[in-house]
Amino acid sequence: MLFLLLSVTLATSSGYYNFQPNQRNVQCHCVPLHLCPDDEMALNGLLDPRIGDRVCPDPNEVCCDQKENTKLTSSRCGIQGGGRVKSRITSKTTASFGEFPWNLIIQESRDKDMYLYKCGGSLIHPRVAITAAHCVSSYVGEPEKIRVRAGEWDIESRSEPLPFQDNFVEEILVHHGYSALSLENDIAMLILSGGFQLEDNVRLICLMSPGEAIVENRCMASGWGKNAHNNGKYSPILKKVQLPIISRSLCLEALRSTRLGPRYNLHESFICAGGRIGQDSCKGDGGSPLICPLLEESDRFVQIGIVSWGIGCGIDGIPGVYVNVPLYFDWIDEQMNDRDLDASVFRL
Hints:
Layout: E1 6-9, E2 16-19, E3 26-32, E4 61-66, E5 103-111, E6 114-125, E7 128-131, H1 133-136, E8 146-150, E9 165-174, E10 188-192, E11 206-207, E12 219-223, E13 239-243, E14 245-246, H2 248-256, E15 270-274, E16 289-293, E17 301-309, E18 319-324, H3 329-338
Parallel strand pairs: 11-17
Antiparallel strand pairs: 1-6, 2-3, 3-4, 5-6, 5-8, 6-7, 7-10, 8-9, 9-10, 12-13, 12-16, 14-15, 15-18, 16-17, 17-18
């Protein structure tokens, strides 16, 4: 099963306003109340709701002060955002702003100045993304038709504490063993024409070399895909789901009970996760990361998988199938070194 594209045109404007009340130099970012921490709300008696001229045109938004100190709280890979970005939203299924700052949107060009959602991806270097090969293999000869967006959260809104960033693709590297029929070795690297600026909503995910210890029952998949296989709806806001890693033997047994039949063999390039009813990645999530916390550093994450395929979505007892990312650690490292790109940024 291939993951279908989401035909949503992505906006490019951003809701920033500059003003100087009482000689304060403030860059006012108009956002919904729940996206502005209390200590960054630039109200303090400066705005009177009874007056006609509002700083923020939308009465449901507040002026969120952009601090002059914009340094990251940490530049290490695998660390979630949360220094300057604190959302009031807490949910088991909706990601908060900056919770998965390595998640990317892969866009394809359809017409001039129009880019549509294609797949998900993840950032492992300011100039390098990884995704599923089935998402981008048809564009190897014309990488300029692919654009990558980092720092996105709600694709229908520009009222966010920090803006997204876009970069074009310079080179698409599809693994030499990729099979479009079986989806074996379903991994690709995107070399970007420019580097992303690391912010609280744009960060790198670590890659796990073989042998690293993770918490296998607390892994997370995230993306903008559908909430059901049939008649499901795509999510405008980044969603998340907690999934356990499933052993190969249990996964193979489950997959053989489906239409794949009793002779199906799971290729070594795949791992499995999930199998709980209603908890799964789905159509539109292809290319998105599956991450797990480190056993000895639970607030730091590594990418262990890439959303690849499945039998339906969220069926009880049937796990989803992901690219076995640690298997490609050396291949990724080699491609980076060949292009004089620092591979140490995604190492633990």
